[in-house]
Amino acid sequence: MDGLQLGQSPPGFRSGFASFIGRPNVGKSTLLNQIMRAKVSIISERPQTTRNAVRGVLTTEAAQAVFIDTPGFHKPRTALGQKLNAVVHVTLAEVDVVVFVVDAADGVGSGDAFLAHQLHNVRTPVLVVLNKTDLVAEQALERQMVAVRALGSFEEILPVSAKSGAGVADLVRLVTSRLPEGPLFYPPDQVTDQPESVLVAEIVREKALRLTRDEVPHSIAVVVEEMREAEEEGRLEVDVIVYVERDSQKGILIGHRGGMLKQIGTEARREISALLGSRVHLDLRVKVKRDWQRQPGLVERFGYGRQ
Fold first, then answer.
1. What confidence tens digit (pLDDT) does each residue in 37-86 have?
2. Per-residue CA distances from 124 to 26, 97, 290 (Å)
């Protein structure tokens, strides 16, 4: 990679884009992080955790593969849900390889069948990843392989454990071998195209998702208002607003005597400091924007549904 400049295309060098699609909670974000060996997409057991197209950039001597983690495809009930599904559709039209992720532990279901039907009209090569094999016995895995084959004709069906990393190197090899010859799109040392402010907001949201429950997670939106160097050298001040839809949710997020918000801030600050390599002062505030998920203008303002 020495001396290779952006836009250059050395002989035989492959580059392009591969998109992960699948139902919510099939492990797309975990798979992306495992490929990158870095955290570029937040993880939660809650559906619709991923709200934008998140890109991880993997560069080797022979190729640059840009892996795109998309929101879980689902039946939308709000403006937010419609926006997230639109991200999936647009991404499918712009990539060189589609990686269709299926949950082997949960089993092939109607949602997978619906997505497979959508892929029938896609001319892009489609690879199927049967994920979470670490949770499935061998005979059950064989049954799921048969069920996937019944969904349609795919170029490859690959058992993988995004959690342990089993099969991930094979997936990377299969993807890069299908990329066209092309130039370097990103600097070789870049692992994601997400701005620091977005990464910070997503880390805060991840901690809030983990620590809250019931109806609160879907209603959380996080916006970084400002990031600035403090007068004290080596310290960054970050102002963050956490939006919810109801006063009751605000109370849950703040907690008794502010205990919940303090815990969210402590966990987020630790990870943000490691990410940015700087001491961080995190100022968290909670505000109510009623039914923001149903308002396209607010969904866009909060930065969700980016492609």
1. 988 876 655 555 555 677 899 999 999 999 988 765 645 456 655 655 56
2. 21, 6, 41
Binned at pLDDT 50, 70 and 90, residue 99 comes out as: very high
What is the side-by-side order of every strand in the sheet holding 14-21?
Answer: 54-59, 63-69, 14-21, 97-103, 126-131, 156-159
CA-CA distance, 215 to 251, in Å (whole number)?
13
Q: Which of 112, 99, 101 is nearest to 66 (CA)?
A: 99
Tokens representing 74 are 């689902």
For 279-297, the three-class secondary structure string (H helix, E strand, C coil) is EEEEEEEEEECCCHHHCHH
pLDDT single digits (tens) 128-168: 999 999 999 999 999 999 999 999 999 999 999 999 999 99
Neighbours of 133 (CB within 10 A): 23
What is the spatial distance between Cα 292 and Cα 274, in angstroms, rounded to a whole number?
Answer: 32
Report the mean per-residue pLDDT for the chain.
86
**What is the β-pairing status of strands 63-69 and 54-59?**
antiparallel
Do residues 217 and 25 make contact, with C-beta atoms less than 8 angstroms apart? no
Q: What does the alpha-carbon distance between residue 202 and residue 198 come to, in Å, rounded to a whole number?
A: 6
Phi (first) and psi of residue 53, to 5 degrees: -80, 115
Burial letters 254-275, b for 16+ CB under 10 A, else e = beeeeebbeebbebbbebbbee
Rounded Cα distance, 122 and 118, in Å: 8
> Which residues are registered as beta bridge partners of 126?
98
DSSP 49: -
d(CA 62, CA 293): 43
Tokens of 25: 């909670």
Q: What is residue 74's predicted lDDT score, i.e. its pLDDT?
A: 46
Structure tokens at 240: 């963050």
Residue 21 DSSP SS3 = strand
| Nearest-10 crossing angle of helices 247-254, 259-276 | 70
3-state secondary structure of 37: coil
